[in-house]
Structure prediction request, 223 residues.
Amino acid sequence: MHFESTFLRNIPNIVHGFGTRSDPVPTPVLKNWVELRPEWNQVAGTEIANVVRRNQACGDVDGFFTKTTNPIGVRAADCVPILLARKDGGMVAALHAGWRGTKAKITEKLAKTLLAQGEDLSQWVAAIGPAIGACCYEVGEDLIEDFVKTFPEIEPDMISPTHRKLDLSAINQFELERLGFGQVDWIPECTYCSMDKSKGAHFHSYRREGSGTRQWSIIARKA
Ligand SMILES: [Zn+2]
Prediction:
């Protein structure tokens, strides 16, 4: 099982998927991913790589964009994965936005990077994948206050709908819309508490399982 964005599915010549516990690498992209995937270290920063060749060594990055048919993606377990594509299917991007990347405004970094490439953001679709939800993501009050100060345009109740719970996906959704991305989709599955009665947890969750287990969110232009 994997999840897809209906918005991204409507874009021609794109294949994508958000992985789960049963299929950490989404099946539609599995073969290409194994053969062509870039090499990188995810460091919860804001660096973004332009992927121009297969198996590219990208260094310490938390985002990618490409006009090639090489697949790009991020691994996450609770952090927010974001997959993006231009509406004509000619270019794609992927972001890893945990609390550090979100607070450091990795979405704004991507927007600036795409604008510098001559892109019109209104022609882009962004899809926020499964991540730990405001139902489960309890953090310190200091961190909530930090977010409220960092994002003065966002209602504090949207940043933290209940006491000490942080809504990273809502913050990223607000930011993507504020920055001018044409359409923003959101798959509202919580990686911590989304369960199947017979099969158990749908997702790997850092909060539930600790480090070492992850699922991948991957997008590619079709060859
Ligand atoms: Zn939850």
Remarks:
- The pocket of zinc ion is lined by residues 133, 135-136, 190, 192-193 (CB under 6 Å).
- The longest strand covers residues 80-86.
